[in-house]
Structure to design on (473 residues):
């Protein structure tokens, strides 16, 4: 059952959501099968008590129908039924979380039934729900358009009130929704193109950007999305980044969680691209963005942070030599990291901190703990990467030679790792090997190594350069 689709989906629920789903299943309106409720209870109790142990289908069926032979077909139908109920539950939860969506569906139903007596009041209530919403993002304008469209198309006729204003408002809301959606999708396209190296022409984008510039009274999401599009289209122009961060500082509370995270992700991507080109002044901006995200709790879910996000913040702190701040972060979140690799994330953070403070034995200890049990490929790669540097700092030639060889084999063994990631780590291995094998008195080789470190797509460029500069002296 560990690999079953329904088990996978149930793991998506936070523990506090399980009682809500249980209540959903106990409702005879939604669920007509007591066995579906029992199957959920069995899976839930097993996930709480023994999350690592696999419960077979036969064992699960016995807990639902004690003493009966395993009914394979019946059991699989029951799994499908519970899965359908779960997806229905998710849709219900989404409906409750999106102001205006319920009202739009209600208007549709009233139109379908030709209800005219109270239609205008329902329309006004729906309009008020959306217009008074604090977060005016993409969904807000889409819902506003749909509500006004329903009145413009059908409501005025049903209510016996033919009006021009709702139609004009509907067209205005449609125009805003369209332009905002195009900015959002255009930004996503430009981000992908920066990664893949491709390019394409999008008609009408300049007109939309000019429209935003010419209407300074627009809702904040419009200048924000315009900045994001320009940042991805013009990755060397700094002013778009600083304009965006100023807007986010002032208005991020007006956007949904997912919208705000997409905006901050765009800002972070901009910084990392510049850092990868050797522009180290952007390191401070990355850390400032992460600190802002922690302050606003946008990175947190139920007070906890995902292990990969935590790891990224650790790396950002290390690149800024923010060791005291990193120590406080490790202390604050030592029991608040979530995900399968939460222990490795904390160990890696401790290793980074010890390394930054030149506490080599302690760093090596934490890294070896990761390598003894690591089941995440990237923790395995990054732990080896850092351990090589520990061996260098402690003057351990045997450890360096052995790890360089095993690191390369480890990389090649993982065929599913992308070419870009493999090239990234292989470049570090090659440059590291050249660093330890290039005599300082051979100036031509040293200069070539320095040039290759500077222009290569490699992690730890700053560390490699610092070690090379130290060799020269």
């Amino acid at each position: 059952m560990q690999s079953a689709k329904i088990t996978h989906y149930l793991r998506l629920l936070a523990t506090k959501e399980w009682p809500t789903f249980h209540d959903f299943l106990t409702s005879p309106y939604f669920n007509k099968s007591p066995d579906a409720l029992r199957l959920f209870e069995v899976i839930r109790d097993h996930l709480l008590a023994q999350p690592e142990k696999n419960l077979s289908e036969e064992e699960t069926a016995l807990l639902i129908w004690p003493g009966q032979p395993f009914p394979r077909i019946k059991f699989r139908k029951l799994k499908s039924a519970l899965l359908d109920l779960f997806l229905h539950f998710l849709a219900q939860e989404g409906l409750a979380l999106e102001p205006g969506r319920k009202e739009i569906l209600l208007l549709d139903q009233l139109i379908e039934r030709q209800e005219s007596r109270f239609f205008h009041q329902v329309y006004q209530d729906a309009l008020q729900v959306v217009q008074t919403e604090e977060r005016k993002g993409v969904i807000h304008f889409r819902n506003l358009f749909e509500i006004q469209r329903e009145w413009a198309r059908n409501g005025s006729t049903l209510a016996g009130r033919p009006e021009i204003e709702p139609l004009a408002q509907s067209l205005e809301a449609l125009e805003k929704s369209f332009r905002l959606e195009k900015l959002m999708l255009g930004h996503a396209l430009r981000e992908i193109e920066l990664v893949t190296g491709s390019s394409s022409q999008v008609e009408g984008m300049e007109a939309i950007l000019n429209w935003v510039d010419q209407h300074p009274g627009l809702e904040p999401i419009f200048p924000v999305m315009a900045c994001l599009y320009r940042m991805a289209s013009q990755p060397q122009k700094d002013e778009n980044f600083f304009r965006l961060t100023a807007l986010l500082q002032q208005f991020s509370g007006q956007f949904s969680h997912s919208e705000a995270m997409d905006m901050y992700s765009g800002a972070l991507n901009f910084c990392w691209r510049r850092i990868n080109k050797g522009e180290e002044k952007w390191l401070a901006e990355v850390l400032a963005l992460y600190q802002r995200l922690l302050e606003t709790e946008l990175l947190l879910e139920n007070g906890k942070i995902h292990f990969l996000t935590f790891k990224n913040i650790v790396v950002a702190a290390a690149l800024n030599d923010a060791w005291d701040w990193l120590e406080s972060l490790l202390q604050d979140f030592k029991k608040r990291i979530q995900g399968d690799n939460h222990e490795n994330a904390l160990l890696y953070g401790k290793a980074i901190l010890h390394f930054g403070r030149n506490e080599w034995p302690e760093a090596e200890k934490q890294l070896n703990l990761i390598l003894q049990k690591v089941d995440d490929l990237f923790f395995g790669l990054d732990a080896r990467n850092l351990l090589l540097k520990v061996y260098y700092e402690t003057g351990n030639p045997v450890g360096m030679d052995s790890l360089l060889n095993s690191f390369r084999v480890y990389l090649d063994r993982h065929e599913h790792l992308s070419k870009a990631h493999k090239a990234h780590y292989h470049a570090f291995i090659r440059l590291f090997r050249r660093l330890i094998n290039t005599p300082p008195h051979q100036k031509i080789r040293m200069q070539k190594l320095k040039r290759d470190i500077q222009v290569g797509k490699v992690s730890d460029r700053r560390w490699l350069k610092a070690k090379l500069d130290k060799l020269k002296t």
